[in-house]
Design goal:
This protein is an alpha+beta fold. Helix content is 57%, strand content 16%.
C-alpha cells in the first residue's frame, strides 16, 4: 500500500504538468492567432492605404509637373513619370505589408539576388522593353500626338508606357508596339517638324510644251492658300518615261495641312493641265493583227475637247434634221 501511494502521486504530478503545458500551448496559440489577426488587419489597411496613396501621389505629381513649362505640353514625359511614381509607391507598400505579416524582406532580397540571373534570363524581353522605354523617354524621338512610322506601320502616338508604345492609325485602329521593337527599328517622325514638303509627280506627252506645263503646275501651287511662300513652289522635269515626260511639283506647307493640301494640289494640277489642253498620256491597248488585217485599237479614247466637239456636232446635226 505504501508503494502505490508514491506512484499515484507521480501520476498526478505528471497529469498536472501535462495540463499546465497544454494550457501554456493554448495560451500561446491564442496569442499567436490574435497577433496574426491584428497583423492581417493592419496589413489590409496598409494595402488599402497604398492603393489610395498611389492614386493621390500620382495626381499630385501630374499637377506639379503640369506647372513646369518643359512638361506642360509634353504628355509623353508626364505620363511616364506618373506611372513610375505609382509603381514605386506600390512596391514600398507591398514591402510594408510583407514586413507586417512577419516575412523577413532581407531574406527575400537575398533569394531574389541569388535567382537574379534566372529571372533576368526569363524576363529579358520585358526588361528590354522597360530599358527601351527609358531610352525613348531620354532621347525623345517622338512625343504624344506625333504621327510616326515604325517599320511600315504609321499612326498617331497616344501613349508611351514602360513596356509599349500605343498608336492610333487613320482608321482609328489601336496599334501597340513593344518599346524594344520601336527602339530597334527605323523611326520616321512625319510630324516632328513644323513644315513638310508636298511632292506630286505628273506626266505629259513628249510633244507637249514642258515649260507651259511647269508654269501651269506652279500657278496651281502658288494660288493655294495653304502653300507657303518660302520656300517657293518648284517644278521641274524629273524623268523621261516610256511614253511620257515626268514633271514633279514640290510645295512646302505646315505639317497639319499636308494631307489636304496634297489632295488639293493633285486635283487642281490635273484639272489645270486639262484646261490648258496639255495631254496626260496613259497606257493604251491595241490588237496585234495576223496576216493582212488592219490594226484596230481595242479601246478608243477621246479627250475632253474631242468630247465637246462631238456633242456640238451631234447638236448641229439634230438641228439640221429638224430644219429639214
Amino acid at each position: 500500500m505504501s508503494i502505490r501511494i508514491p506512484i499515484l502521486n507521480d501520476s498526478l504530478a505528471a497529469g498536472e504538468k501535462a495540463t499546465a503545458v497544454d494550457a501554456a500551448m493554448i495560451a500561446k496559440l491564442t496569442d499567436m492567432a490574435g497577433d496574426l489577426a491584428v497583423n492581417l488587419v493592419i496589413a489590409l489597411v496598409i494595402l488599402a492605404a497604398t492603393i489610395l496613396l498611389s492614386r493621390w501621389v500620382a495626381g499630385v505629381t501630374r499637377r506639379m509637373l503640369s506647372r513646369v513649362r518643359g512638361f506642360r505640353h509634353d504628355q509623353t514625359v508626364l505620363s511616364f513619370v506618373v506611372q513610375v511614381v505609382r509603381v514605386v509607391v506600390y512596391i514600398v507598400g507591398l514591402i510594408a505589408v510583407l514586413q507586417r505579416l512577419g516575412v523577413q524582406t532581407t531574406s527575400i532580397i537575398a533569394v531574389l539576388g541569388a535567382a537574379s540571373l534566372a529571372v533576368g534570363l526569363a524576363l529579358q524581353g520585358t526588361l528590354s522593353n522597360v530599358a527601351a522605354g527609358v531610352l525613348l523617354l531620354v532621347l525623345r524621338p517622338y512625343k504624344v500626338g506625333d504621327v510616326i512610322d515604325i517599320g511600315g506601320v504609321a499612326g498617331s502616338v497616344q501613349r508611351l508606357d514602360l513596356f509599349t508604345t500605343q498608336m492610333s492609325n487613320a482608321n482609328n485602329h489601336k496599334i501597340v508596339v513593344p518599346n524594344a521593337k520601336v527602339l530597334g527599328d527605323v523611326i520616321l517622325n512625319l510630324s516632328g517638324q513644323k513644315t513638310r514638303r508636298v511632292e506630286i509627280n505628273f506626266t505629259v506627252g513628249y510633244g507637249e510644251d514642258l515649260n507651259a506645263a511647269r508654269a501651269v503646275l506652279a500657278g496651281v501651287a502658288e494660288a493655294h492658300e495653304k502653300v507657303l511662300d518660302d520656300p517657293a513652289p518648284w517644278t521641274g522635269v524629273t524623268g523621261l518615261l516610256d511614253s511620257a515626260v515626268q514633271i514633279t511639283l514640290q510645295a512646302w506647307v505646315k505639317s497639319d495641312d499636308w494631307w489636304q493640301t496634297q489632295a488639293d494640289l493633285m486635283q487642281g494640277g490635273k484639272e489645270a493641265i486639262d484646261a490648258a489642253g496639255i495631254e496626260i498620256p496613259f497606257p493604251h491597248q491595241v490588237a496585234v493583227p495576223y496576216g493582212d488585217e488592219d490594226v484596230m485599237p481595242v479601246v478608243t479614247v477621246r479627250t475632253v475637247e474631242q468630247k465637246r466637239k462631238g456633242v456640238r456636232a451631234g447638236t448641229d446635226a439634230a438641228a439640221d434634221t429638224e430644219e429639214g
